[in-house]
Amino acid sequence: MIKRLLAFVAVALMIGLCIVPPAGAEELLGAGATFPYPLYSKMFDVYSKEYGVKINYQAIGSGGGILQLKNKTVDFGGTDAAMSDAEMKDQPPIVHVPVCLGAVSVTYNMPGNPELNFTPDVLADIFLGTISKWNDPRIQQMNSGVKLPDMNIVVVHRSDGSGTTFIFTDYLSKISPEWRVKVGMEKSVNWPTGLGAKGNPGVAGLVKQLPGSIGYVELIYAMQNSMPVAALRNKKGAFIKPTLGSTSLAAEIAIPDDTRVSLTDTDAQEGYPISGFTWIIVFKDQNYNRRTMEKGKALAQLLWWMTHEGQKYVEPLQYAPLPKAAVEKAEKIIKSMSFGDKAL
Questions:
Q1: In whole angstroms, what is the distance from residue 184 CA to residue 285 CA?
Q2: If you placed Cys at 199, which of 34, 153, 162, 316 could pair as Cys (CB 3.0 to 4.6 Å)?
Q3: 231-233 and 117-118 as β-strands: parallel, antiparallel, unpaired?
């Protein structure tokens, strides 16, 4: 009996050792996208309680996350816009680990908040300022059963560098030649019209306060604020609302090994057209700025957990989980992380 008890204690100790964080790696610092912030808050809270590693993440926008990683002031960045070759130039190799998919929803504030449909050209012209009234015949045409008010449209957009903006403008650039030429796609653009607000929470809050307004936010922010979201006509001609299912379908495409891919204007029959991955970005070689190997290991372990066990927290917060192909790509990327010539 005593031998069996000692054996049980030995096994328990071995299991315990597996989840103890490496010495000197009790805290990891991150900053970036507001798009996945509700999910990251949940994930990091659970991970901290289970493994004793505190994760401090500041939701400052994708542009800020990229900048802070490049400046080496954080352990990881968060971005909804994959870094371009130009952004990664003159930097040590940076890798992108996808965490989930999200939908950029078009939300609005008008009397009664009826369900609305938008075609791509009409949506682009609203944000270009060409369509400025809610009862414009082009909006009315696709919403024949809705009485639209004679009311000015107030566009609300992000004022900070944002991956959400990148996804939204990437979509508009694909479906509107005029938008592509006049505005383009980037994390921060010169908006033709409208008011700016910081972060997804700022845009959601301003739209909710301003009658006649329209803006774009990650789906969870619209849902948390009980705000309406529009159905958009996709490439196949179907009007699709942003849901977990329609967001996941948008990713039914070939995913490159580095996972830097655009999912907007998807070819999927039932896919929502303004969807995208959100990534954690890190330096592939963790041996920099007097970092320890233990901290590098702790970061790699966190990323593995987020793309595996942590996926169970994705759907409850209205994000779409990683498809199998994306998980397999993420595994290879995490396994490629090193500390000098030593694998993590």
A1: 34
A2: 34
A3: parallel
Whole-angstrom distance, CA of residue 205 vs CA of residue 222: 10
Q: What is the radius of gyration, based on Cα positions, of the chain? A: 22
d(CA 28, CA 321): 24
The count of other CB atoms within 10 Å of the CB of residue 259 is: 20
CB 218 within 8 A of CB 105: yes
Spell out the residues 6+ positions from residue 214 whose beta carbon is closer than 8 angstroms to its own. 106, 107, 108, 109, 126, 153, 154, 155, 156, 207
Reference 113, options 213, 242, 224; nearest CA is: 213
128-153, pLDDT tens digit by residue?
A: 999 999 999 999 999 998 999 999 99
* 246, 272 Cβ separation under 8 angstroms: yes
Is 124 a member of any domain?
Answer: yes
Closest CA to 248 of 336, 314, 343: 314
Asked if 86 and 185 touch (Cβ cutoff 8 Å), the reply is: no
Alpha carbon distances (Å) from 296 to 32, 100, 102, 214, 334: 19, 22, 28, 43, 11
Contact 217, 203 (CB under 8 A): yes
Phi/psi region, residue 127 (left: phi>0; alpha: psi -120 to 50; beta: rest), is alpha
Contacts of 7 (CB under 8 A, 6+ apart): none
Q: How confident is the model at residue 25, as a pLDDT?
A: 54
pTM: 0.80
Q: Into how many domains does the chain fold?
A: 2
Neighbours of 95 (CB within 10 A): 23
State the pLDDT at residue 18.
41
Domain final position from 275, 306, 324: 275
Among candidate residues 230, 254, 275, the one where a domain is terminated: 275
Task: Find residue 97's DSSP bridge partners.
Answer: 280
